[in-house]
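Posting here for the record, re: magnesium ion.
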Amino acid sequence: MKTLSIVVPCYNEEPNITDFYEEILKVAPALEEQGLALTLTYVDDGSTDGTAEAVRALHTRDERVHLLRFSRNFGKEAAIYAGLEKSTGDYVVVMDCDLQDPPALLPEMYRLIAEEGYDSVGTRRVTRKGEPPVRSFFARRFYRWINRMSRTEIVDGARDYRMMTRQFADAVLEVKEYNRFSKGIFSWVGFNNKWLEYENVERRKGETKWSFRKLFVYAVEGMVAFSTAPLAFASVFGVVCCILALIFLLVIFIRALVMGDPTPGWPSMVCIILLVSGVQMFCIGIVGQYLSKTYLEVKKRPIYLLREEL
Ligand code: UDP
Ligand code: MG
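Prediction output follows.
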């Protein structure tokens, strides 16, 4: 019998831990029929509520339930990495704890891998129902831009809910970068991937962990991690500004020769200085983003630290 490891990143998900376990138990017989035994690894990403206790209670009841507990909150990306690294199954699936990733899809995902020979099966939601409209709007823009900027395809609506073979998981683990953007990494490693589509499901209990600010930072990180186009944009902008400045200089010089220089024109001068220095600061900011990521990368800090493992 083959084994499937279910990796569940959790951050303050106390009310969802047992619900999730019970939902998984409901699909377990269907998977066993397909010749697949389950193990469940909850990755407690530094929760401050009773998440770890809830998982421990499950572990005493059912030895297929495991706990990886971080020393602090390292973020979902780190939790995914830890789960892939520590789980031992022949297949691995990453799922959210809030039941937004329907466990009912698991048998079909496994069928696609086992019978049709895919290496990974990803999921994408086709609707953004139940999400604030402003958030959907910016999410759509983000996917449009990042796909223009990056050679790695980042699919709109793609979730981290994905089943993969051990080989695929090991390939993802080979990507050891500190600034992890899983949506990009899953696509970057290649292999044969299949997308399953489903309607958005709302979170069962508790609140989303993503504020608008956190999502914005995440979007910038994704762009910096998977594209160097902003850097090229900064230099193109600089060249364009130089050319414009040269043309203006020539015009002003000739005009002064022909008509003299009757007006000092300081307001326009101030505007131009402000504009150009603004553009300069913006471009330095772009360079700074890459520099700061490089700085964090060369420090080679561990992606996560464990305080408990069951
Ligand atoms: N999560 C995590 N670490 C974090 C934030 C979130 O492990 O720092 C987990 C969270 O517990 C959940 C999953 O990542 O299982 C998705 O988070 P959430 O449901 O808040 O995001 P959304 O579904 O709203 O995008
Ligand atoms: Mg969610």
